[in-house]
Amino acid sequence: MNAYVTWPGQTLELFSAAENAIRQIPPAFPLDATVAVNPWLGQANEDRRTAAARLARVGGGRMFLPRETVAAMIDAGHVTSEDLHAAEAAHGLAPDTLHRAARQTAAKTAVLPALADLAQDDSGIDWPAFVEDRIGLWAAAHFDRGQAFWPAPGGGAWASWRVFASRDLTPELAGLPGFAARIAAMPSDARAAFADACQALSLTQEAAPVYFHRLLVTLGGWAQYARHLGWTAERDGGREDTLFDLLTIRLAWEVALLDQGPSTRSAALDRALKDYARPLAIDDDIALEAALQEAVDRAAERRLGDTLLGQTEARPDARPAIQAAFCIDVRSERLRRALESADQGLRTIGFAGFFGLAVKHHGHASDIVEARSPILLSPGLTTATNGDDTGIRVRLRAVRAWGRFKRAAVSAFAFVEAAGPLYVGKLLRDSLGRGALPQDDPAPYLDLPLQERIDMAEKTLMAMSLTSGFAPLVLICGHGATVTNAPHASALQCGACGGHAGDVNARLVALLLNDKAVRAGLQGRGIDVPDDTRFVAGLHDTVSDEVRLFEDSQPGANLDRLRSALARAAVLARAERAATLPRGKAETLATRGHDWSELRPEWGLAGCRAFVAAPRARTAGRDLDGSTFLHDYDWQQDPGAATLELILSAPVVVASWIALQYNGSAVAPETFGAGNKLLHNVVGGIGVLEGNGGALRVGLPWQSVHDGTTLRHLPSRLIVAVEAPEEMIQQVLRRQPDVRALFDNGWLTLVSIDGATGLCRRYNRGAWGTSRAGVSAVSVAA
User: Fold this and answer.
1) Is 51 helix (H, G, I), strand (E, B) or coil?
2) What is the per-residue DSSP string for 546-613?
3) Strand, helix or coil at 112?
């Protein structure tokens, strides 16, 4: 980037428009840490109807359920007249409008054309697909993270593509003579090339923002992957311009197609740019579909409200024999419920699975740094492990060399011909779910001064609302998923641990809280951990519902009792989950993840629809169907609302990203889904293609949200239910305007829970009203 060029005012406006368009694109993270992302993150500052209208113009995918799906829900009784009337009142519609709208066919929304679309219209050549293919071919090599044998040209994205395209003769064969020479003659500086391209296309300040957004959408997952580079850099206080370079690349293609086209193509572009410059408008079809989605959302709220209604059962004052802290992940809900029924002397706790420790972790004998924390945070701590890893490193290098030999162009076919039969046994073992089990790494630890360790322990226990009443044995249980042959395996891991399992964080916390010096420091701060209390770390395998305990955390009394309760709970949880999975059998669920041919080892977080921050007594014994994030919270231990602010600004936001990613993958799979697992090819070690080329596919595979017959994740707005005084919640929202915007703009629903009755009251832009859908007195943003 040339810092010494003085750009004219109009060009600066175009740079600003490009920056705005870039922020409309959601980030997509690589396969080794598939972090769930809100696919509408770029539109979070506006309401859902406006966002839907914006995305409809640029081909950004639908946002609301199809009308026929809502009609089927009405017929099945899942969406009631009460829900429909509430949605009509919220959107200012006459009674019975939505009953009729659900049976009507919506008009197809016309996407504004890019120049590649206009070129296709006048030439009959599928230029959009051609451009997607050529950019995808280059991008797969440029963004490669060690999968390719021949690296792409170095430098930034614009420099790399310019070298590639100036030697690529394929466009000339397709009908763009002189394309390579044209690209070679373009400025080497991306900003200069961008300015030249905008001038050649006669882009105006009014048309540019939407036009740039449209071009970025045509780049599909490559744009989203590049956006993750910029988003992460911004989070950490830096800047990264890869997505700007990609936009410039896409503009270069537009200019080439304009210059090589007939004169009518220029006139068609002028007409299209006038449409791009028109103000955004919400048409009747989008308004009706938003209202129908509102009815679906209200139905989910009604069901949750009915479940939470009523007084809680009095909990015994006696000290529990065991406490077990699990991640708030919805998959923990079933196991927690089963565990509490298996042993009446056991109580469970819900807390974000990184347990308050945002760490950079080096696995044993590995130089790869794993961010074991929510993606919203930049880890500030680094783990260490004991033990000599020399032998393991030598073995791993040999394995990598053998793997590259097997895949090399000069040896791959000969290898299969000679050694292929030797793999028959391995294929049979993997098919029968008898592959090798993962081995535990040596215990990680944090090499920190005592005061810092005490601070960390205090913050963790305060955030868990666990500052007294400690049991003799406390389980700190992370979670992960044991699967094989699954490119999207990290999507089944812990969202609070950056797409990794939660074992490292659980072991760190257990070791920290077993430290006598740390306990002495906690006692001085009013947190008295009894001498007989011991913490043990565990890992909940969400595929099998087995919990593996780590011996390095010095368990105390009741360990056999805990093991027995965990075994009984696993049986109960598997029996419940088996009924939801295709070909699911309780007796084979424990080994399902070892089957390399299994498309659905588990459902992950499909079906998630609520987040409850309340004492466990509010939800204990109530069947929430594995659909709810459960975070323990006692407002009476939080006089300044600091813990509530942490919950609403971190775990709630992460949970909303998860829910919205599932929503996007279900309602707009062509835009925000990864496609069919059967057609996946891993590219660059960062993502998948559906087939052998084209755009990078992001989001969740279709098999993660659909069972082959019906959707297993039915998109609805995440409901955040907090048991706390409403003024206390309002206080937090005033301190956190970005979080408040998620509720005010209708992306999330916020309800307060009355501690005595369980009655939920609904938040709406600073006002609170009854949560019963049919008698809501206030409207909400769509």
Assistant:
1) helix
2) -EEEEGGG---TTHHHHHHHHHHHHHHHHHHHHTTSTT--TTTGGGGGG-TT-S-S--TTTT--EEEE
3) coil
For β-strands 673-675 and 700-701, DSSP reports them as: parallel
Helical segments of 166-283, H only: 170-174, 179-184, 190-200, 208-218, 221-235, 242-259, 263-276
Check if the beta carbon of residue 27 is closer than 8 Å to that of residue 248. no
Residue-level pLDDT at 4: 47
pLDDT-based confidence at 576, cuts 50/70/90?
A: very high
Other CB atoms within a 10 A radius of the CB of residue 708 amount to 10
396 is written with which tokens? 């791993």
Q: pLDDT tens digit string along 190-232?
A: 999 999 999 999 999 999 999 999 999 999 999 999 999 999 9
What is the four-CA torsion angle of 70, 76, 80, 85, rounded to 10 degrees?
A: 30
Question: How much is the average pLDDT of 764-778?
Answer: 66
- Quick one: pLDDT at residue 441? 73
Q: How many C-beta neighbours within 10 Å does residue 362 have?
A: 17
Q: Is the dihedral of CA 164, 169, 171, 172 positive or negative?
A: positive
d(CA 312, CA 320): 18
Q: At residue 728, does pLDDT exceed 80?
A: yes
Residue 396: the pLDDT is 54
Q: How far apart are CA 228 and CA 139, in angstroms?
A: 15
**d(C-alpha 506, C-alpha 329), whole Å:** 15
Q: Which one, of 596, 302, 325, lies nearest residue 475 by Cα?
A: 325
DSSP per position, 446-503: ----HHHHHHHHHHHHHHTT-SS---SEEEEEEEE---SS-TTGGGGSBGGGTSB-SH
Residue 169 near residue 176 (C-beta atoms within 8 A): no
User: pLDDT at residue 3 above 60?
Assistant: no
Top pLDDT among 390 and 575 is at 575
Residue 719 DSSP SS3? strand
Please state the φ and ψ torsions of residue 580, each to the nearest 5 degrees. -95, -15
- Single-letter code of the amino acid located at 753: I
For the record, the structure tokens of 559 come out as: 């360990």
Contacts of 54 by beta carbon, 8 Å cutoff, 6+ apart: 24, 43, 46, 60, 213, 280
- Residue 299: what pLDDT? 98
Do the beta carbons of residue 157 and residue 191 sit within 8 Å?
Answer: no
Is residue 675 within 8 A of residue 694, CB to CB? The reply is no
Query: CB atoms < 10 A from the CB of 360, how many?
Result: 15
Higher pLDDT, 442 or 585: 585
Residues 6+ apart with CB under 8 A from 33: 370, 371, 490, 498, 499, 500
The per-residue pLDDT for 391 is: 59
* 403 or 222: which leads in pLDDT: 222
* Residue of 772, 656, 714 whose CA lies nearest to 298: 772
Instruction: Check if the beta carbon of residue 340 is closer than 8 Å to that of residue 548.
Output: no
Q: How far is CA 227 from CA 191, 332, 336, 468, 685, in A?
A: 18, 32, 37, 45, 17
- The DSSP symbol for 440 reads P
Confidence of residue 650 (pLDDT cuts 50, 70, 90): very high
Sheet holding 381-382, edge to edge: 369-372, 359-362, 381-382
Q: Rounded to whole angstroms, how far apart are CA atoms 333 and 318?
A: 24
Q: Are strands 760-764 and 767-770 parallel, antiparallel or unpaired?
A: antiparallel
Q: Give residue 770's pLDDT band: very low, low, confident or very high (50, 70, 90).
A: confident
**How many other CB atoms are there within 10 angstroms of residue 366's CB atom?**
15
| Percentage, residues of the chain above pLDDT 70 | 89
Give the DSSP H or E segment for 632. Answer: strand 628-632
